[in-house]
Amino acid sequence: MNQKHMVCALPVTPTGEVLLQQRDHAPGIAYPGAWTIFGGAVEADETPDEAIRRELIEELELEMPLRYWHTYVCPVRSIPGELDVLVHVYVGDLTRPIESLTLHEGQGMALVDEAKAKTMTLGFGKTPVLHRLFDEYLRGKNMTVRTIAGLDALRSMFAVSRAQGRAAFLPYYPIGYPDYEASLEAIRAMASAGVDGFEIGMPFSDPLADGPVIQAATQRALENGVTVRKCLEAVRTLRDQGVAQPMLMMGYLNPILAYGADRFIEDAKAAGADGVIIPDLPPEEAAELSAACDRHSMGLIFFLAPTSRPERIPLVAERTRGFIYVVSLTGVTGERNHLSAELETFIARVRAHSADVPLVMGFGISTPEHARRVSGLVDGFIVGSALVRAGAQGVEAVASLAHDLRAVLDLADDGKKAR
Fold first, then answer.
1. Going by C-beta distance under 8 Å and a sequence separation of 6 or more, which residues neighbour residue 402?
2. CB atoms < 10 A from the CB of 291, how many?
3. 199 is known as an active-site residue
4. N or C: which end of the chain has fewer CB within 10 A?
């Protein structure tokens, strides 16, 4: 059964009015009729971004700057067993007078201000979309609208950290540990601490690259009923709650194949994810996922380890999308007291054959001292086990460690805050 996608656009004028469509049999600017929002279905060969631009040209002969806002899940109650419809909502800057627009099919349109909008029941699922538009988007309350996503969001992340003379900090945290709501609270707390991006952990029963701390956490998440779909819902919720940092879905291949590789990438983008990290997927076997990520401008991250053969480095550099995940050690994830003395040699070897592809280091990084050491060596780093261990003590412990790991990046070599 294929996932159904719809798109719609809310054109907003500089004075904060929203253009709506009236479906009726008689044309005109102002007449009684059923109010609706401009949009339509996403065709099989389209992305949502392409579909909404096509719909606006077909319906209004209008091209305008658009920003993705939110994806709503709409149950299809009329057909038992049918998949929910995902409705992707965009907001556009309408600078043309509506009298200059051509509306096809003999329908009407009108500009609606806040007072009028709040008398309407237009919505998706149980959410009154116009209420949210005025309360959150136009007033900027409780929401950060992302103007870039996918690979562009990853590029921007590295550009910002590079301009600040430090590495980007991307914490890993699994959805569902110690329970679903606590995991979302931990991620929100780390976002508030100023981390640069996230690895969003999707639990799997056989996490071959993970050490005992993450294995135990993801097993508990599975016992809590967390699935791939639930992880995507978590990302959608976090975006809805204002988390704007790039998010990469980190999980293993089997659950993604069971979900449907192409549909997973499509749904991950719709939820607000920017890419995927799959430890057991080598680039030689990634054609299907690579093609899907390219279609949706999503990151797809491949790995290099100290044991990687020299000829493998340019292969990974060519096929990775976003950055190369460089593993700091041989073995599984987990906290270490010391990082390898050979890190500098390993990174120099990778950089010699990977052009300008950003390098992000993971496995074994757990302390602020580790963070400072790798910050001058790679473009980003990932901390997982230490944060997951802190999660057993509560959200405050996670936030405190994330704050310390982020704050140390702003210190100069003498340990004082850099100016």
1. 169, 171, 189, 190, 193, 195, 387
2. 14
3. yes
4. C
Q: Is the separation of the CB atoms in 168 and 196 below 8 Å? A: yes
Which residue type sits at 402?
A: A
Between CA 49 and CA 57, with CA 52 as vertex, the angle to 5 degrees is 125
Of 49, 55, 136, 210, which is the active-site residue? 210
In 10 A of CB 242, how many CB atoms? 15
DSSP 8-state assignment for residue 219: H
Helix, strand, coil percentages, rounded to 5, for the chain: 40, 20, 40
Q: Give the confidence band of 319 by pLDDT, cuts at 50, 70, 90.
A: very high
- 30 to each of 24, 54, 111, 237, how far by Cα in Å? 11, 26, 9, 37
Neighbours of 159 (CB within 10 A): 11
Reported as a pLDDT band with limits 50, 70 and 90, residue 27 is very low
- Pick the catalytic residue from 55, 199, 240, 266: 199
Could you give phi then psi for residue 38, rounded to 5 degrees?
A: -65, 135
Residues in CB range of 101: below 8 A, 6 or more apart: 60, 61, 62, 109
Residue 416 pLDDT greater than 60, yes or no: no
- 230 near 203, Cβ under 8 Å? no
Q: What is the mean pLDDT of residues 395-407?
A: 94
In the predicted model, is pLDDT for residue 256 greater than 60? Answer: yes
Annotated active-site residue 61? The verdict is: no
What is the reported pLDDT for 289? Answer: 96
Residue 372 has pLDDT above 90, yes or no: no
- Answer yes or no: are the C-beta atoms of 119 and 112 closer than 8 Å: no
Spatial contact of 196 and 380, defined as CB atoms under 8 Å apart: yes
Length of the chain: 419
Better pLDDT: 240 or 289:
289
Q: Which stretches does DSSP call E strand in 13-93?
A: 18-23, 34-36, 38-41, 66-74, 85-93
**Cα separations in angstroms, 260 against 42, 267, 283, 417:** 18, 10, 18, 48
Give the separation between CA 387 and CA 214, rounded to whole angstroms: 10
